[in-house]
Description:
- Helices cover about 35% and strands about 20% of the residues.
- It is α/β, with parallel strands linked by helices.
- It has a single domain (about 5-224), classed as TIM Barrel (Alpha-Beta Barrel).
- The radius of gyration is 16 Å and the shape is globular.
- It binds D-xylitol-5-phosphate and zinc ion.
- The site of zinc ion (ZN) has 6 residues, from β2.
Amino acid sequence: MRTFRIAPSILSADFARLGQEVSDVIAAGADIIHFDVMDNHYVPNLTMGPMFCEAIRPHSSAPIDVHLMVKPVDALAAAFAKAGADIITFHPEGSEHIDRTLGLIKDAGCKAGLVFNPATPLSYLDHVMDKLDMILIMSVNPGFGGQSFIPHALEKIKLARQRIDAYTAKHGGEIWLEVDGGVKVDNIAQVAAAGADTFVAGSAIYGQPDYQAVIAAMRAELAR
Ligand code: DX5
Ligand code: ZN
């Protein structure tokens, strides 16, 4: 059976109590902290820079998964690696040289991944599978928490799963398949059935008073 990971997005956390929000969600059973970086250029919203990552690092016993929605990518990827990120993903549209950006992230000691917007083709994977630790399929257009899951993302998740399985069967290794946007207790089983193993959830977790109850309900759905 696949290993499933729950990755709460702190985009929906209380920013005035960020350290506590990070440790609370880990105590509630989170596996990964998903950290959304928006630059008011690549996406129409502005969030957190590397200093925030450095500030929450001591509060997180879990890996920090930095999702860069920025253009250009390289300087910020390097800064987040220095600030304690464990995983860094970026959108191919944000990088002039995708292979170089992936190499830069790996050389800095982090896991690297590519992110696909709902209308970004998976053909960007063609020549970089050997450098990937993660593929992130967006199930909303990036920029905001609390949006609805776009159903056609399920088909893309299936295609990404096929690519990963074909590649790892031949070459070994492990590539995680993460899904981000509108994931909730009532659709997580469907997202898993399509092939995802890592689930970002912002509003579904931080929008409820009892984080542990939501994460337990998600795990129960995944175990069905
Ligand atoms: C959207 C971000 C997501 C967002 C998800 O651009 O990348 O990580 O926080 O939020 P929900 O789970 O509320 O859709
Ligand atoms: Zn995200």
